[in-house]
Amino acid sequence: MKIKQAVIPVAGKGTRFLPATKEIPKEMIPIIDIPMIHYIVQEAIDSGIQQIIFVNSTNKESIENYFDRNYALEKFLEMNNKHKELELIQKIGTLVDIVSVRQKEQLGLGHAILTTERIIGKDNFAVLLGDDLIRGIQPCTGQLMKISETYGDNPVIGIMDVPKAEVSKYGIIDGTFVNGEKQTVIMKEMVEKPSPENTPTTWATPGRYILSGDIFEYLKKIKRGAGGEYQLTDAINMMCKSRSVYAHFFTGRRYDTGNIFGYFEATLNFALSDPRLKTYATELIKKLAKDLSSGKDHEV
C-alpha cells in the first residue's frame, strides 16, 4: 500500500522556547536559515508523501503560510533581479499539498491525530513529530514505509536505543526481534516514560510512526491518561492486542529540538555540514575552545 499522507502535529505552545514563541511558532524557529518545520516536511516529501496534514492551533497560521506562495514577495524579488532568492521561495511554495486541521484544545498526541480522521479515512499514513529532526542517507519515514510494506502493510514505529538512565523521557517498546534479526521488532506493548528500574527495554520512540486507518477506532476508545491527555501510546497498545504492530531501528542521527540543548546541538551540527559554513564554523569552534582552555571569559 503506497502511503501518500503524513500528519504533523504543530499545535503545541512551545513554552520551552519562550520568549521567542510568544509570537513565533516554535516550528518556525530556524536552524541556521531554514525553519525547523521545513526539515520535517522535506523528510516526508523525500519519503514519497504527497499531502501534509498540519494539526495546528491559534496563532500557528505562519506555518501553513510558509509553504504557500507569496506573490508580493516574488514580484519584489523579480523586480530587483534577485533570481536565486526568487527560485528558492517559489520552490518552497510548491513543495507539497498542504491541509490544515485546527486542534481547539491541546489534549495530547492521540487527540491531535484523531482530528485528522475525516481527511485520512481508512488509509495508512505517516506521523512525524516536529520536535525531532532526523538526518541520514535515507529519510527515516521512508525507511519505516518500506518495513510496513514488507510486513503486510502493518503499523511500524521508529525506534532507537537510548541509555537506560534516559528511558523516562520516552515511550519504550517491549517486543521480540523478527526472525532473529536485530533491526525489526514485533511489539508486545509500549510503556510511556517508565523509570529506569521498571523499563522493559531501552528501545525508545522519538516521533516517527506509520499507522493504519483503524488507529482512529482505538483512539475513540481510550480514556484520558497522563496529564489529562489522550495518549497515542494507549491506542497503540490496544491495537497490539488485535493485529501485528512492528518497531524498527531506523538509521540516521536524531536531534531533539524540543529543548534548548537539542536545538543548539542541531544548529551546531547543521552548520558543520553546510558547505557555506563548514570552514567558518570549524575555525570558530577551535578558537572558542582555545579561548576556554586559556580561561578567557566570553560573557558580554
How many β strands by DSSP? Answer: 14
User: pLDDT under 50 segments (min length 5)?
Assistant: none
First and last CA, distance: 57 Å
Helical element count? 11
What's the SSE pattern? EEEHEHHHEHHEEHEEEEEHHEEHH
The name of the CATH architecture of the largest domain is Alpha-Beta Complex
Q: Report strand %.
A: 15-25%
Determine the CATH superfamily of the largest domain.
Spore Coat Polysaccharide Biosynthesis Protein SpsA, Chain A
Strand order, main sheet: write it out: 8-11-9-10-13
Q: Please, what is the average pLDDT?
A: 89
**Most strands sheet:** 5 strands, mixed, barrel
CATH class of the largest domain: Alpha Beta
Radius of gyration: 21 Å
- Percent helix among the residues? 25-40%
What's the CATH topology label of the largest domain?
A: Spore Coat Polysaccharide Biosynthesis Protein SpsA, Chain A
What gross morphology would you assign? globular
Global structural class: alpha/beta
The number of domains is 2
